[in-house]
Amino acid sequence: MNDDNGLVIKLLEEIRDNQHRQIARQEEAMRVQIQQFEMAREQFEKARLLQDRAQQLQEKSGRIMEKGRKIMAVVLPIIIVLIAYLSYLIFR
C-alpha cells in the first residue's frame, strides 16, 4: 500500500510539474502572439499612413495636370497664331 501511495504521489508531482511547464509554455506563446499582434498593428498603421500620403500625392498630381491643361488651352492657340504669322512674314 505504501508503494502505491508513493507511486500516486510521484505521478501527481509529475502531473503538477507538467502543468507548470505547460503554463509557462502558454505564457510564452501568449507573449509571442501579443508581440505579433503589435507588429501587425504597427504595419497596419504604416500602411494607412502610406495610403494617406499616396492619396495626397494623387490629388496634387491631379491639380497639376488640370493646371497644365488650362495652360495648354491658352498657350497652344497662341503658338499656332505665332507660327502662322511667322510663315506669313517669311513667305510674303
Could you please describe the fold and organization of this structure?
By secondary structure, the protein is mostly helical. It has a domain at 1-64. The protein contains one helix and no strands. The protein has one helix spanning 2-91. The longest helix has 90 residues, at 2-91. 0% of the residues are buried. The model has no long low-confidence stretch (mean pLDDT 95).
Outline the fold blueprint.
Elements: H1 2-91
Order of helices and strands: H
> Into which percentage range does the β-strand content fall?
under 5%
Span between termini: 131 Å
Average pLDDT level: 95
Derived from helix and strand composition plus strand pairing, the structural class reads: mainly alpha
Low-confidence stretches: none
Shape: rod-shaped
Number of strands: 0
Assembly context of the chains: single chain
Main sheet makeup:
none
Instruction: Supply Rg.
Output: 39 Å
Summarize the structure.
The protein has one helix at residues 2-91.
Descriptors:
92 residues; mainly alpha; 98% helix; rod-shaped
